[in-house]
Amino acid sequence: MQNSGRMGWLYRVIKTGMVSSDAPLTLLQRCGDISVREASAIAFQSGYNKRDTLRLLNSAGLSM
Question: What is the DSSP letter of 3?
């Protein structure tokens, strides 16, 4: 993951049940302001940058 920059995320199940393959997924809430791609770049691809590192460390949702 570090070398390729390909990462993923997990979805939280709010209510159990069946979902069809054509059912839309709706974002109800975003817990932070950093995307998975940006977090990966800050952590693994780009050189050390204090401002970006602190922004990543303080991003809501990453410590949940």
Answer: T
